[in-house]
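Limitations
The structure tokens in this dataset are predictions for the assembled complex, not deposited experimental models. Users should treat interface geometry with appropriate caution, especially where small molecules or nucleic acid strands are included. An illustrative entry is reproduced here so readers can see what is and is not provided.
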Amino acid sequence: MGHKMIKKLIKAAAILMLLAGPQGGMAQDRPVLEIDVGGPVIDPIPVAVPRFIAENGGADRLAIDIAAVVMADLVSTGLLREIPGSAHISGTSNFNAAPQFADWRVVNAQALVTGAVSTSSDGRLVVKFRLFDVFAQQTIGDGVQYTGSAEGWRRMAHKVADTIYSRITGETGYFDSRIVFISETGPKNNRLKRLAMMDYDGANLRYLTDDSAIVLAPRFSPNTRDVIYTSYASGLPQVYLMNLETGRQSPLIDDALNMATAPRFSPDGTKVVLSIIEGTNTDIYLIDLNTRSRTRLTTNGGIDTTPSFSPDGTQIVFSSDRAGRPQLYIMPATGGDPVRISNGNGSYNTPVWSPRGDMIAFTKIKSGRFHIGVMRVDGTRENLLTASFIDEAPTWSPNGRVLMFFRETAGANGAPQIYSVDLTGRNLRRIDTPGFASDPNWSGVLR
Amino acid sequence: MTFIKAGLVAVSLLSLAACENGGIFGGGSGGGTGAGGSGQTPGAIEESSLEYFATQIGDRVLFAVNEATLSDSSKAILDGQVAWLNQYPARAITVEGHADEQGTREYNLALSARRAAAVQNYMVSQGLLSSRISVIPYGKERPLEICSTEVCWSKNRRAVTVVAGGLGSV
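Predicted assembly:
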């Protein structure tokens, strides 16, 4: 029975990953995943995360807060649901004692997370946790301990949740990550925009620019130390590079008349691919970050824009209206003949290569509706995940399981908010931001 | 009595100017225009003024969905702009390209550049020095009208010619 429950738990999670292809390598300490292709809609696994034990007086608050962040992370996946504290029969008072499995079984918790938190006077924080399969009455993996500074407690909570997620699903986690985006205020005909950054769950929001110039489409460098984006600071749309530690920003291309948009880093972080506007034409260029030399990758008279590298750095997907409405094309990262991959009705825009390498996410516009969709790299198996007045600009979670994008409502009071959705189209959620928000870009897992 | 009448006319002129300017970025007259400030009398707008350019010649041309082609009526407006600019050779212009909200931000930015460049190219073909023309593409960042129907979208798909310089610099 117990073993079967774990399997069921894992299988449920696996069904949500069908589109995601082969597994990334982690989580060796669990049974082999069974992928059920014909699987029905998932019943989330009930999980209990009782208040973490505070091992000293100063840790009381953090013990509560960390458990809450862990639970919020797990529930946000749609794969798990919370057994609320009010339903718990027993708590945990001793981290090293075995849980009262019978009490957890009665409240129908299938997974149980216990934890302990201690702080020291020099601001150090230690977080320990264990994950249990309640029906099997055994731990899933070993207990883990994280040490860090107390002010980084949210990141430690996200790391705990990442490990739990990884053990349950076999996927790498994505909670310890950040979003860079455009924060927006003001009426539709005088919108003010600022570059902003936040944790993946909306916490720790920080503004990176003021609202004096239009800013667009920021993207993290692969090591999350820099952000590249389009700004009208000079009056023209130009691409800027910002170092997140120093806050220093500088134009990427040293040419006052240059107009450039849609920048994105290469996977090794040494190059930037972007669009340069010249007259009626927009073409894709590669900029070497060391030499700042420029290589032209497309020469077509159409609008070639929103390039995105494959994770191995060998190819680039982009959108082009060379055949009429915008469609998706793939070309070698050194330039060369592009191959069209999108073939449906409507237009295809803002392609983004998945971190796993096997899928492309995009914005599709058809019959006046916007969709976030995914397709295989060869253009097959197109799947539209969302539909609304405007759904635009998908970005992948670090593990390729979830997409964020922005949704803008129609009309005079229309405004954008950031949403996330699973690769399956399930689990649509709005990310909580103080104002309007758009153009999200998801970092890799932080180091 | 005459004084009161003049005051009323000035008020109605001001409100007219406010209407035509619409949104903050829709004026297209580069700032400093408006009948109130210059103390002009109605019906006799100074031909050299930015107001004349905006209201009598027309400071903008409109485009079909996803298109950057200039219609014959658009070309007629641009011909008028070129003629005016030939008369006032000290004036330089910025052509601001715009798109409606039915497209992604980055595509529409390039589309609006294509529209502005189409205006620029036409003016150059009509003899205007390209050095007098600069271009800024705004994509869908600066809508003039804010409803989400074709009534507004048709006005947002525009290229606006903004004449540089204050009123005294002719």
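Some entries come with short summary sentences. For this one: Residues 181 and 440 of chain A are 4 Å apart (CA to CA).
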